[in-house]
Design goal:
binds magnesium ion; Acyl-CoA Binding Protein; eight-stranded mixed β-sheet; eight-stranded parallel β-barrel; D-amino Acid Aminotransferase, Chain A, domain 1; Glucose Oxidase, domain 1; binds phosphoenolpyruvate; elongated; single chain; alpha/beta
Length: about 900
Amino acid sequence: MPKFVYDFTEGNKDLKDLLGGKGANLAEMTNLGLPVPPGFTITAEACRHYLEHGTLPEGLAEEVNAHLAALEGAMGKKLGEPGDPLLVSVRSGAKFSMPGMMETVLNVGLNDESVHGLAAQAGDERFAWDSYRRLIQMFGKTVLDVDGDLFEDAVEDVKRARGTDDDADLTADDFKDLVDRFKAIVREQAGREFPTDPREQMDLATEAVFESWNADRAILYRRQERIPVDLGTAVNICSMVFGNMGMDSGTGVAFTRDPASGHQGIYGDYLQNAQGEDVVAGIRNTVPLTELERIDKASYDRLLEIMETLENHYLDMCDIEFTIERGKLWMLQTRVGKRTAAAAFRIACQLLDQGLIDADEAARRVTGGQLAQLMFPRFASRVDGVKKITKGMNASPGAAVGKAVFTSERAVELAERGEDVILVRRETNPDDLSGMVAAKGVLTSRGGKTSHAAVVARGMGKTCVCGAEELDVDVKAGSFTAPGGVTVSEGDVISIDGSSGDVYLGEVPVEDSPVVRYFEGELSAADGDELVTAVNRVMEHADARAAMAVRANADNAEDAARARRFGARGIGLCRTEHMFLGDRRQLVEQLILAEGDDERQAALDALEPLQKQDFEGIFEAMDGLPVTIRLIDPPLHEFLPDITELSVRVALAGDGADPKDRRLLEAVTRLHEQNPMLGLRGVRLGLVIPGLFAMQVRAIAEAAAARKAAGGDPRPEIMIPLVGAVQELEAVRDEARGILDAVRESTGVDVPALVGTMIELPRAALTAGQIAEAAEFFSFGTNDLTQTTWGFSRDDVEAAFFSRYLELGIFGVSPFETLDREGVGRLVRIAAEEGRRARPGIKLGICGEHGGDPDSVHFCHEVGLDYVSCSPFRVPVARLEAGRAAI
Ligand code: PEP
Ligand code: MG
């Protein structure tokens, strides 16, 4: 039988799968000799069993008994014992941190008798009754599903009766009164008495924590953060220490470095005479951690010592939750801290400079997703004509502009209509998650950098300004006021700067990030911008380590040039149909409507010089690097007017209809397909419309010859799309080879060109061995390959039913975003293996959207592709991930 319970002395930081992040790190700290209140962890495996079967696993109760007995032995008191009770906290703790998403119950073990024991031991009646009412409140809400507002309302009632609006003015008798009121609320709402048996409290709280894994907000958070749905949470049972035992007690959160900038120093918040949840919930305003030096120097010094120990042990920035009980410091949690993208790069390089980690590890410590965040625009540094209305804390960087909304519901509603919104709240709580997801940014008037809003926004990479205390937020009225008589109502546009904390009324223009300017070559690593220097160092190392090259999907010289500046080593996909849009649509129309060979040839002749010019520009921008040009792919009707509009026009005109319109309508009707994505496109077009592919190949060959004659080094690769059978490819390849030879002869310039194919149909993947006989390279078109493997229309499904599929956990992320390794990936593997077997050394790449997705880039590395190709702006992300994949 598996072991379901681990004492803190038994675990370690590497057991996160089993003990969750919190449990594993509590164990690690315990073993480091740090002051952790004794306790034990019930494993995530027990949770998984509970969620699957609805019952606790066999043997768990006995194990808990044994560990509780040991804990009682160590503490010298028994759980809930009337004279001197042991009290415990029951906390969730999954493998991946999900701040505030799951449940916690504190002060378990208190009842009508033990509250007296606690009062006597602490010498403080008020504290004991306050603790007891907190237990009933948390237990009622969490375990018995009682609406939390009812408890809050009761507290407000009592405060009103006492003529105060501060909890601190409440007396022991007030809390006694609240205990009675809370019990009545439980009785009425839950239809049962608040359980007074300490062990029953502990067991019910444990089950409630297990169940909170499937709370709506936890499900939503996991989807956002791509955390697997089936991990479950561990439960930590920890002996209570109290931060609410008077002014020599308190609770706080600390970071070993600034989670926003990465700089070393003392960062965190402290709240005197409070229990842990008060800080994270942002309910009362905290003081900066540096104040603790004045309040309790001994604890402060000890905390700094511990912070150093933790950094040196974890070799990374850590965040910490701690409590001081009557001058004694206790560690309640640590973990490798969440940080902003900028801090991640800075910290990685700082640790590298300190010799704590090597360059490989530095690259491991950052992600492509973080780099992408750093490439977001920022506000222009000079802001004219827009009023700055206040400044809050710079909780999560970025620049966000949108209409102010005051509830999560409105945020979701407006965002669904395509509007940009900023969610404005006094403070957020876990129920605001959907609004935070929908909003461009989050602004709160209360709470520090460790408040819920700040922690969650940073995790999501969402711009957040918190603790803007000058704002008076009135959620009911749907407005806030700022100094100087400014009132902002729902729908007014505001701009928030998550890097400076500034809040503006109106729309502030945004400008490129310094990281983009660095990639553009406008800023250099030597210019002294610490972030740019860090990014440069990591990128250089990633490039040196990468086994795959990164190319770009680009269809014009300008994009190609930008991609090259961003580090692309060629073009992996030039979609030539994009060159037929705009003014040239007319010419394509002529081609489609052509009656007879002469008319068709005339249309092709008109297109050819334009195509040649395009290719010359691209070859020049990518001189010396491979350029894969794909022959025209999409269905022809895309170049013709909309069938409904045209039909109406012709019908309305009746006998007077333009003859050209009539011909057009005829053509549109003839070409109309029910399933155009599965219809006449790609290689099929080339085989059906004589001369079309030939024109394109000639334009490529002549452009290459012209570039070479001008001293350039063009490297064309001609790619045939949507091939399903080698025979299709052979026919087009033979024609293409003939044209290449003819152009070589006519120009006297020899430019070697590869001819290859896309693998974007399951049949192509499954017959890749045959296809490789005729193809000099493969490029995996995973957009179509995903569409055809799953039978999902790439243009429709995301709107139609993906959200339901995500909810059901059929997949954790859209397969159009991250490559489906098991299905589509299997086809890629088969094709790569069979292609290599048939043609050793065949060049393999990917040009579907997945080429810029971090997880998919790692997959491509595993399969041994030669390159990934993605949109120019994603090139740095793909470079970084290609390097990280090789480490
Ligand atoms: C693909 O199908 O993956 C691809 C790159 O081609 P397109 O997106 O143009 O169909
Ligand atoms: Mg395709």
